[in-house]
Design a protein that fits this description.
The complex is a heterodimer.
Chain A (H helix, E strand, L loop, with lengths): L1 H14 L9 H9 L2 E6 L7 E2 L5 E2 L1 H14 L5 E6 L4 H6 L5 E7 L2 H6 L2 E3 L4 E3 L1 E6 L14 E5 L3 H12 L5 E5 L2 H9 L5 E5 H10 L6 E3 L7 E8 L3 H19 L7 H4 L5 H6 L16 H8 L3 H8 L29
Parallel strand pairs in A: 1-4, 1-5, 9-10, 9-11
Antiparallel strand pairs in A: 2-3, 5-13, 6-13, 7-13, 8-11, 8-12
Chain B lengths: L17 H9 L4 H27 L19 H13 L7 H15 L10 H21 L15 H27 L4 H16 L2 H15 L8 H27 L2 H9 L4 H16 L1 H14 L11 H9 L8 H30 L6
Helix pairs in contact in B: 3-6, 3-13, 4-5, 6-7, 6-9, 6-12, 6-13, 7-9, 8-9, 9-11, 9-12, 10-11, 12-14, 13-14
Classes of the chains: A alpha/beta, B mainly alpha.
């Protein structure tokens, strides 16, 4: 009997991973156990990394904390499961974790065939360029004829070729096997520019002998939207994760920070009052307490605060906001209104 | 009567004794040897002084932050120093470190009498260590009883996790391996084929696949809600995998015992288990000590593979520390530290095996 059950469940899971098996179950289960089990990366600077005390922090980790704050009014009610890239989707499918916040690119294939739902985008990543400052280049379009240190056999290499061909420019590739070798070569001056995902470039820059001697160009030539993921089939839970992220973005847009959220409680602005649960739909739509968004802002901060603290100017990475600025400041971060 | 006093022996010529003589006969005996020796010396000159400079002389030892290392040209051991507790204990709560210390301290205390020649109850003590010590250790690590707070296995890590994984692998694989080896040589067809299939299956798949299957595939087969601990899955995988290798090493030892020994055991009227336990296995195991220890050393290093399933063994926790934005770019220090720890453990195992061989040598060694 047991064998049949095992085989049947294997077939069921591999064939139709999108089965509506746990509709509405996640929220109840999470409330019952009293914490959010969150899948994070085993170590990505600024996105999820543990300090010497073993406390996790980072932009991805903050999404988990935001969900915990919304649910339990305590951002620390999170348990982290560090996952490798290969394990991450299985952990979600098997219910080992409640949500995945692990620099995962949102693509059609993943969204449609893995039984997952992407709850939003907490970081717009994309391939960019790093050059030495003494090259005096301000835009990637001035890189005609430059030599590039690239990792062989990656999509990065293909994107670079496409970009240069479509702009009618030439470049000399200098290829290496690993990203470490690539950085060493760039540091040693064997090429003019380095290309990789922007979030990576900033981390690589710190490894250079003189980090201030290199700069990341503003151009982004590929789309890598990274965001939190939930298992498909539990809309209630999916919406909580989705709106926890939206609440952070909305808070930044309205200028509410972890510092002034208490003062803003008495604001007259109807938008602020709705976000902080003073009027309107409050928490009932999501099945949360009325102060859910206020708790997120108080304990985790708004999106801008989280960004600057983990990857921006407040961190050693010093990533520019770029595409991750708010929509009304020239970026792509946009959240639907809370009303 | 004059007594003949022989002239005292002249000392040998200075150029055939001492350092000079030794180097003349070993390093500079022919033009080719001279050239090779000089080349080797040049290589040592090229490699060793810069290495010593980097590791010791130019290295930064004091401080708590990245800034302390900014001016140094050598290794930045501050990075290792700041994280040393994490490298040893993983994410274990700091207040509970004593439990890990106690567990390993207990092992040392318990193991000491085993090395004392006059101690009489070695067998009983060894049985205690093998049966009760793991239970005590598990209680200390996991907690949940006797007023100890529960610490989930996901918080275990660092060197202590490496030692646990290796320890479980070693303790489980030896008896399993013996049983499998005996089974494979058995005349009973079913026992024999089961053992052959088991050994060949586990030897035929890479450990990385075993770990990966245990972490990724197994949860999909288990019913919803059963959360089978990831560390336990990895331990079972490692133990089964290693027992197959161990079985083959021991089978080599069994095959090396002359047929006469088996026949003599039978002639004495000993049962199968008695003849194995009293006559065959003591000789066979002694013969394959180098092979067994070789497998243990390989197993110790193979435990680092658990990093692909998100368990933080010594190497993984060091790699994880590289991702700290405050300490980017100090990976070489981390890897050197990991390598030296692994070397210390593997080298001690190898020395222990050699001393064991010497102690048990009864003159059969050729």
């Amino acid at each position: 009997m047991k064998k049949i059950h095992v085989i049947a469940s294997a077939v069921a899971l591999t064939a139709t991973l999108s089965t509506n098996a746990f509709a509405g179950a996640t929220l109840d289960a999470v409330k019952k156990k009293g914490f959010v089990q969150c899948g994070v990366s085993i170590g990505l600077p600024g996105f999820s990394n543990a300090d010497e005390k073993g406390n996790w922090s980072g932009l991805d980790v903050d999404v988990c904390r935001a969900v915990a704050a919304a649910l339990f009014a305590d951002a620390n009610m999170v348990k982290y499961t560090p996952l490798t890239a290969k394990e991450r989707f299985t952990a979600l499918q098997s219910g080992e974790i409640d949500m995945l916040s692990r620099n995962t690119t949102w693509t059609l294939t993943r969204d449609s065939s893995l039984g997952l739902n992407f709850a939003g985008v907490n970081y717009y990543d994309g391939q960019g360029f790093m050059v030495t400052k003494k090259l005096g280049v301000k835009s990637a379009l001035e890189l005609d004829g430059a030599s590039f240190c690239i990792q062989a056999g990656t999509t990065t290499e293909l994107n670079l070729a496409d970009y240069f061909r479509s702009n009618n420019m030439k470049y000399t590739p200098v290829t290496f096997d690993t990203s470490d070798e690539t950085v060493k070569a760039f540091d040693a001056g064997r090429c003019d520019a380095l290309t990789s995902d922007q979030s990576q470039l900033y981390a690589l820059r710190i490894k250079l002998g003189n980090p201030d001697g290199a700069t990341v160009l503003p151009e982004v030539i590929s789309k890598e939207p990274l965001g939190p993921v939930t298992a498909q089939g539990d809309d209630e839970w999916y919406k909580i994760v989705r709106w926890s992220l939206f609440a952070m973005v909305n808070a930044e847009e309205m200028g509410i920070t972890s510092g002034n959220v208490d003062a803003k409680m008495s604001s007259d602005d109807p938008n602020v009052r709705r976000l902080l649960g003073q009027e309107g739909i409050k928490g009932s739509g999501l099945g949360l307490a009325d102060g859910w968004a206020a708790n997120i802002i108080k304990q985790v901060g708004n999106y801008g605060e989280s960004f600057e603290r983990n990857v921006g100017q407040g961190s050693s990475l010093k990533i520019a906001r770029g595409q991750n600025a708010l929509w009304n400041k020239g970026g792509l971060q946009y959240a639907p209104p809370i009303r | 009567m004059s007594v003949h006093t022989p002239h005292p022996d002249l000392p040998p010529p200075a150029n055939i004794v001492g350092v000079i003589g030794w180097s003349r006969s070993n390093l500079f005996s022919t033009p080719l040897n001279t050239a090779l020796s000089l080349f080797a010396l040049y290589l040592i000159y090229l490699i060793v002084p810069p290495m010593i400079n980097w590791i010791f002389l130019d290295a930064t030892w004091v401080g708590d932050t990245r800034e302390a290392c900014a001016s140094g040209t050598g290794a930045c051991w501050v990075f290792v120093k700041v994280r040393i507790n994490q490298f040893m204990y993983g994410f274990f709560p700091e207040a509970e470190y004593w439990r890990i210390n106690l567990a390993f301290g207990l092992l040392v205390v318990l193991a000491i009498p085993l090395f004392i020649k006059r101690f009489k109850h070695k067998g009983r003590l060894a049985a205690f260590i093998l049966i009760f010590y793991p239970i005590i250790t598990f209680q200390l690590f996991s907690g949940g009883n006797f007023g100890l707070t529960h610490v989930e296995t996901s918080k275990w890590g660092g060197l202590s996790l490496t030692l646990i994984l290796a320890g479980v692998g070693i303790v489980a694989s030896l008896p399993l391996g013996i049983v499998l080896a005996l089974g494979r040589r058995s005349k009973m067809p079913i026992v024999k084929s089961v053992c052959v299939v088991f050994i060949e299956f586990w030897r035929g798949v890479p450990l990385i696949t075993v770990l990966f299957m245990s972490s990724v595939m197994l949860p999909l087969f288990l019913p919803e809600g059963t959360n089978f601990d990831k560390l336990l899955r990895a331990m079972i995988g490692i133990a089964l995998f290693q027992s197959a290798y161990m079985a083959e090493v021991i089978r080599g030892g069994l095959a090396a015992i002359p047929k006469g020994q088996y026949e003599a055991a039978e002639a004495l009227g000993l049962s199968f288990w008695k003849s194995m336990g009293l006559i065959i296995l003591p000789q066979a195991l002694k013969l394959v000590i180098p092979g067994i220890v070789n497998t243990f050393i390989a197993l110790f290093k193979d435990t680092t593979l658990v990093l692909i399933i998100g368990l933080f063994d010594l190497l993984a926790i060091i790699q994880q520390a590289f991702a700290d934005p405050d300490w980017l770019g100090y990976s070489i220090e981390g890897y050197v530290f990991a390598a030296s720890i692994f070397w210390i453990f593997c080298f001690s195992m190898s020395r222990y095996s050699m001393s064991l061989e010497k102690k048990l040598n009864t003159g059969h060694a050729r």
